[in-house]
Amino acid sequence: MESATNNRERQSFFLNMGPQHPSTHGVLRLLLEMDGEYVLEPEPVLGYSHRIQEKMGESRSWAGFMPNTGRLDYLSALIYNHGYVGLIERMAGIEVPPRAEYIRVITSELNRISSHLLWLGAFLLDLGAFTPILYTFDDREQILDILEHVTGARLTYSYFRVGGVCSDVDQRFLEATRAFVGRLRGRFPIYEKLVTTNIIFIKRVKDIARFTPDMALRYGATGPILRGTGINYDIRRNEPYSVYPELEFDIPVGETGDCMDVYLVRVREMEQSLRIIEQALERLPEGPFRVKVPRRLKLPRGDASFSVETARGELTYYLVSDGSDVPYRLKVRSPSFSNLSLLPELCRNVLLSDLVMALGTIDPVIPEIDR
Amino acid sequence: MEELRALPAQVNEVDYRRRGYHVEVNLSAGEVRGFAGILRDRNFYLVFVSAVHLAPAVEVIYQLASHSDPCRIVGRAQPADDGSVPTISDIFTGANWHERETMEMFGVTFSGHPYPEPLLLPEDAADLHPLLKGDGGVKTVEQVRWPAGEGN
């Protein structure tokens, strides 16, 4: 046994993957200790897109930090908007008009779907399937057009405001969203045929990189990879915010926690998001979309926390205030940070090609990890 | 709750609607591992470890939550005289990265940490501690706590 270990040490070599590797999705670098095609020890090397966002959060008024929230996880920017306005509203005790809450939920869920669609295409691209991304980007483009019309941006949204949203939605938005719900429902059978039942796909993801409930607990992993292990935990349900308690939707969970289960969780989540959007459109009340909040509003002294469920898991903002309009400390707990930290344990002694699958399944967004 | 109250630490239930968490626990450095151990046994997960620069010392913040019950706990720890807090990365494996980040941003030492290297900052900026406040910017603990009777 000992000689085998020594032998291994002698044969191992280091492989540098990233920070510009196409399957590290952004500027993530992995330092891999390899033995042939097997990964002995993967070490993520972070910090390439570190912009010290938390310092920016405490060097300007709370209102001035709003655009930064859309630049942390640029794939679910609206949900990051949502967490931040929710935090300020909680601290200042501001009531938000119901119409604004419904608009927030509709646009957030559209954003969640667009994030999952991008993941779906990119994940399959990682395993060498080029066609699906052409389909998913076609669908995602529709969402970007809808959101561009109402928010003015296509990616780094800064649409929510403390007390409501920046502008009201119009008839064109409502019709386009309704049409999109119908369109995407019709596309799921295509994805099912193209991907889910594809034998090559199944061979690449079934029983690969098993996330376990214990691992998720120890690392604080959240989001689809947690639910893939069978734990039914979603902030929208377990610590409800906004108008989610009034809407009916299921939390899809997996059984074994392998890449296949997490894949299925994400696909089913898109279906549930469509359900949420449909109900919210149905119930969208008339009325004001924003209450006026003074821009130099002073926050009360003390600390507060607000959590939302992003496309990747739990986002928590934690703010410490000294009673002025500039936060004393703003901590951003991003989901991918904890999710990625379990990669070394998950990917010891696996094939390099399986590590690519595990990384794709975690779906990290690097600017959100580095902040 | 009962188990937490058994700790010598100060445990308060607070108003969730104002603060977004249910329980606050004020700890000394020596109680941190006991606090983490109890919550690990009760199947809590670690939300984050971070810190706030206050006078007289940097305060380390722990937030944990539960999958089964709506319960979010904030722990605040005062470092020991030498500026260190014991690591909890052997109890919650995920604390490893959070503690590395806190170390480089605030200069807090987590004693017993298995790999105390910078995580996000470049190697030559390891002594920068960018989240520390500049001269005159540091507040005292009382200046950032909820006023008595509010948020409880």
Question: How are the secondary structure elements laid out?
Answer:
The complex is a heterodimer of chains A (371) and B (152).
Chain A: H1 2-11, E1 13-17, E2 29-35, E3 38-45, H2 53-57, H3 66-69, H4 77-92, H5 98-126, H6 131-151, E4 160-161, E5 164-165, H7 171-196, H8 199-205, H9 213-219, H10 224-228, H11 235-238, H12 259-283, E6 302-309, E7 314-321, E8 329-333, H13 335-340, H14 343-346, E9 350-351, H15 352-362, H16 366-370
Antiparallel strand pairs in A: 1-2, 2-3, 3-9, 4-5, 6-7, 7-8
Chain B: H1 2-5, E1 10-13, H2 16-19, E2 23-28, H3 32-41, E3 44-55, E4 58-66, E5 72-78, E6 84-86, H4 95-106, E7 109-111, E8 139-140
Parallel strand pairs in B: 2-5, 3-8, 6-7
Antiparallel strand pairs in B: 1-2, 3-4, 4-5
Structural notes for this entry:
By secondary structure, chain A is an alpha+beta fold. Helix content of chain A is 50%, strand content 13%. In chain A, the strands form 3 sheets. Chain A has a 4-stranded antiparallel beta sheet with strand order 1-2-3-9. A 3-stranded antiparallel beta sheet of chain A has the order 6-7-8. A two-stranded antiparallel ribbon of chain A has the order 4-5. In chain A, α4 runs antiparallel to α5, α5 runs antiparallel to α15 and α7 packs antiparallel against α12. Chain B is an alpha/beta fold and 152 residues long. Chain B has one domain: NADH:ubiquinone oxidoreductase Nqo5 subunit (Beta Polymerase, domain 2, 2-Layer Sandwich), CATH 3.30.460. The longest helix of chain B has 12 residues. Chain B is globular. Classes of the chains: A alpha+beta (371), B alpha/beta (152). At the A-B interface, α4, α9, β6, β7 and β8 of A face α2, β3, β4 and α4 of B.
Question: Characteristics of this structure?
Answer:
heterodimer, A: 371 residues, alpha+beta, Cytochrome-c3 Hydrogenase, chain B, four-stranded antiparallel sheet, three-stranded antiparallel sheet, 16 helices, 50% helix, globular, B: 152 residues, alpha/beta, Beta Polymerase, domain 2, six-stranded mixed sheet, two-stranded parallel sheet, 4 helices, 30% strand
